[in-house]
Amino acid sequence: PGFLTQTSEMLRKICMRNLVRKYCRGLTAERKVQLQQKVVTSAVFCGKKEGYLESLSQPFLETRLKENDLNPKVLQLIRGENIKYVTPVIKYDRNGFKARERLLVLTQSSAYVVEVAKIKQKIEYSTLKGISTSNLSDGIVVIHVPEDNKQKGDVILQCEHIFETVTKLCMLANKQSVVKVVKGSLRFRVGSGKEGTMVFTVGPEPQVFKDKTGQLTVV
């Protein structure tokens, strides 16, 4: 009879709402943060960047290095700021593209590129113009900064945990919309009004090098 069909549908909806309510109430604070971050990662990368599907089963860590792993001089320089995330990165010079080991430190208000006991560059989230990465499986991310005297130019980094790092950065900056996943190539600011080009391609093994034309090539 029709009234039983209607009753069955109502009970299905009530049961589903109850299951959702029970699941949500059972979430730990840590699990809730994980899900919130994964939702942002999906919005930014799903269907756009290779390796996204493989990353789904990998939980994000709160941080890759702890605060006490940082040099005391660095901690003193950024005192008063709440450190949220630290991860090792490879930074490529804007001129010559030499690879250098660095740390990326994300606080509540700024991103820092750190060399042992020195802060090499500080990017306040309020001035961050964009975050670019390719559609391939590389870990390159470019942090775009404004063209002013305070900044040397855009920051070119290679991150082992690209999805985690970009998600943390755009969430802390509250600028999810500025993340771009590009194909083929991208332009970055070198400084003093100059620009460089980065080319992304596919090959038998991962490489990052300066080609004959002077461009940074990422394989």
Secondary-structure blueprint of this entry?
Blueprint: H1 2-25, H2 29-45, H3 52-55, H4 72-77, E1 83-92, E2 99-107, E3 110-115, E4 118-124, E5 130-134, E6 140-144, E7 155-158, H5 162-173, E8 179-182, E9 185-191, E10 194-200, E11 208-210, E12 216-218
Briefly summarize what is shown:
By secondary structure, the chain is α+β, with helices and mostly antiparallel strands. The protein has helices at residues 2-25, 29-45, 52-55, 72-77, 162-173, and strands at residues 83-92, 99-107, 110-115, 118-124, 130-134, 140-144, 155-158, 179-182, 185-191, 194-200, 208-210, 216-218.
* CATH overall fold name of one domain: PH-domain like
Helix content: 25-40%
Total beta strands: 12
| CATH class assignment of one domain | Mainly Beta
Task: Report the sheet-strand fraction.
Answer: 25-35%
Instruction: Kindly report the name of the CATH homologous superfamily of one domain.
Output: Pleckstrin-homology domain (PH domain)/Phosphotyrosine-binding domain (PTB)
Q: Choose one word for the global shape.
A: globular
Total of helices: 5
Name the CATH architecture of one domain: Roll
